[in-house]
Design brief:
globular; 374 residues; 31% helix; 6-stranded mixed beta sheet; FAD/NAD(P)-binding domain; D-Amino Acid Oxidase, Chain A, domain 2
Length: 374
């Protein structure tokens, strides 16, 4: 591939000259940011850069959960983080999903409000009734829906689970098709006249307050403003509380008469699974080795894949023959704080990173917030 300096007049003038905004990262946040900026500044010239031939982080590698908080996750968070922070994060997720569906037609991305279930193993204790009442009260204040959470023992038999003591249901959560989401965001961005280039990796950038000079694997160019939306890969650009975290996922081959319908969480949300086209998509297990999985390197590990297989055999599909089709991984951006980083580090440089594994729920809202910084 030619260096940028060796491109033709037509190529340079189209892609690399007169840029108002250059966005690094073509995932949910990057595409949403570009769309909101274009709607705010219709005459602006916007370029999105993506280092891979597909989005490189988690945007097309996640499980496609439109969720905002399972009871055991909320319980775990409230034991570690202030109530205010927990419910602010909950609100951001819930409002973020509303923003996403305002941006993209829910039907076009395969959205199903199928509900979710939080599985309680026989080794776990049930949550106290007063805690369920408390999270129902707080969620009502945010969502305007009564009794979102409730115990559902019938789910064990209905879905064919074993070694599960009970479940808690959430009536308001659902699932989407992640591939369709990125496709629809890309279509919308393109239709608005936003430019995108894939296979270009930004190595470094420097701002003088008026322009940003970006050094890539194909040479240097400049832009009036730059916004970094690389989530788990942002550490190379930002010295802040952000850490890459690898999430591993597998998918089974199609299973006839699969009982599972909806989205499911297990072990305080560290495991999660769903039905997609009569397959079980199952991910998680990062908590088996937090230190090793704090990486931006793609790949799978034997112990986590074994744990996923074991839970499929003993909990999720105990009486069903199945075959694992293949496995993959995605890279999330996490920190001690579950809220995203949305800030300017310079007059013309901003960051929207650290989605905390909740890019579907909050990505569009983060993009909207980033656009308001300019």
């Amino acid at each position: 591939m030619l260096n940028i300096k060796d491109l033709s007049y037509w190529e340079k003038s189209l892609y690399f000259e007169g840029l108002d905004f250059t966005i690094i990262g073509a995932g949910i946040v990057g595409l949403s940011t570009a769309i909101f900026l274009k709607e705010k500044f219709p005459r602006s010239k916007i370029l999105i850069l993506e280092r891979g031939y597909l989005p490189s982080g988690a945007s097309t590698k996640n499980a496609g959960f439109a969720c905002f908080g399972s009871p055991t996750e909320l319980y775990d968070d409230l034991s570690k983080i202030s109530d205010e922070k927990v419910w602010n994060t909950f609100r951001l997720r819930y409002e973020g999903l509303k923003t996403l569906f305002e941006l993209i037609d829910a039907k076009k991305i395969g959205y199903e409000k199928c509900g979710s279930w939080d599985l309680i193993s026989k080794k776990q204790e049930l949550l106290q009734d007063d805690f369920i009442a408390y999270i129902n009260e707080k969620s009502f204040e945010i969502c305007g829906v009564k009794n979102i959470y409730g115990e559902d023992k019938m789910a064990i038999r209905n879905f064919g689970f074993q070694n599960i003591f009970s479940t808690y249901s959430n009536s308001e959560e659902g699932t989407i098709n992640t591939g369709k989401l990125i496709s629809e965001l890309y279509k919308k961005a393109t239709n608005l006249g936003i430019l995108s280039l894939f296979g270009i990796e930004v190595k470094t950038f420097e701002s003088n307050g008026k322009e940003v000079f970006l050094e890539t694997n194909f040479g240097e160019f400049k832009s009036a403003n730059s916004i970094i939306c690389t989530n788990g890969f942002a550490k190379q650009f930002l010295d802040d509380d952000i850490q890459a975290a690898r999430a591993q996922v597998l998918i089974t081959k199609p299973i006839s008469d699969l009982k599972i319908k909806g989205s499911f969480h297990y072990d305080a949300g560290y495991y999660y699974f769903r039905n997609i086209e009569n397959r079980v998509l199952f991910g998680g297990g990062r908590n088996l080795n937090f230190e090793r999985e704090a990486t931006d390197k793609f790949g799978t590990s034997e112990d986590i894949q074994d744990s996923l297989l074991h839970l499929l055999q003993t909990v999720i599909l105990p009486d069903t023959k199945f075959e694992v089709d293949y496995a993959w991984s995605g890279i999330m951006g996490i920190g001690k704080d579950k809220s995203p980083i949305i800030k300017k580090t310079n007059k013309n440089v901003a960051f929207g990173v650290r989605m905390g594994g909740m890019g579907i729920a909050i990505g569009a809202e983060v993009g909207k917030s980033l656009s308001k910084l300019f």
